[in-house]
Amino acid sequence: DQQVKQNSPSLSVQEGRISILNCDYTNSMFDYFLWYKKYPAEGPTFLISISSIKDKNEDGRFTVFLNKSAKHLSLHIVPSQPGDSAVYFCAASADTDKLIFGTGTRLQVFP
Amino acid sequence: DTEVTQTPKHLVMGMTNKKSLKCEQHMGHRAMYWYKQKAKKPPELMFVYSYEKLSINESVPSRFSPECPNSSLLNLHLHALQPEDSALYLCASSLSGSGGPLSSYNSPLHFGNGTRLTVT
Fold first, then answer.
1. Are strands B4-7 and B18-25 parallel, antiparallel or unpaired?
2. Average pLDDT for consecutive 10-residue bins of chain A (111 residues)?
3. What does the pLDDT read at residue B106?
4. Strands (E), A1-111
5. For residue B107, what pLDDT is reported?
6. Contact (Cβ atoms closer than 8 angstroms) between residue A103 and residue A2
7. From the centroid of its chain, how far is CA B11?
8. Degrees (nearest 5) of the Cα angle A111, B40, A91?
């Protein structure tokens, strides 16, 4: 039972445009959400997080939006850069040490 | 550079071997984690140590044995593995863990670059 899903396995965006990555979850107890970026042969790198008491968090080019009623979060990257090309994972936890990862979306930013 | 260091980077072992994976962090983090990642899949949680005590075991087979000698070190002892155990093994740490003074504070996990394990 996949509690955190990323329904788009891949996304292709032109450099300079906005990248929007989506994530859906089923467990209403989740209260902390994160986005990670992963390059091949490296561990996931933390990008940005959001607590369930907020609906938006921004850090530079990265903004995460949370819609609790829809059990949906999204990551916006603007402007997109070729170095952003990687696999992006959303993750969620429910006030425990257990972090559940989504299935991942491969983002490709082309010139 | 990652602040969570894993050794070795690559490991090939036979099904009768005993080996250990090592993880180290010096960020003062009090929770440490082992995740397993197969190709084209998300990382899957195996074990969590919080304040040097095992807090989560995700029903992992006993051929995987974790150990936390101190708050900076985490080991994963491997014995009698199967070829399907071949995967990328990721260690992570976070500032807070359950059962401690910061247990209500959410903090992100910081990952090492993993050990690529092949069981032959």
1. antiparallel
2. 91 98 96 93 92 95 97 98 97 86 96 92
3. 74
4. 4-5, 10-14, 19-25, 32-38, 45-51, 56-59, 62-67, 72-77, 86-93, 99-101, 105-110
5. 82
6. yes
7. 15
8. 85
Q: Which two tokens stand for residue B56?
A: 């989560």
Q: Is A57 on the interface with B (CB under 8 A)?
A: no
Pair type for strands A105-110 and A56-59: unpaired
Task: Assess A98–B contact: CB distance below 8 Å, yes or no.
Answer: yes
Residue for token pair 């696999």? A87
Q: Which residue has the tokens 């260091």?
A: B5
Task: Report the relative pairing of strands B87-94 and B115-119 from DSSP bridges.
Answer: antiparallel
Query: Which residues on chain B are in Cβ contact (under 8 Å) with A103?
Result: 41-42
| Cβ-Cβ contacts under 8 Å for A40 (sequence gap 6 or more) | none
Q: Do A97 and B109 touch (CB under 8 A)?
A: no
Tens of pLDDT, residue by residue over B57-94, are 999 999 999 999 998 999 999 999 999 999 999 999 99
Where does residue A84 fall: left (phi above 0), alpha (psi -120 to 50 degrees), or beta otherwise? alpha
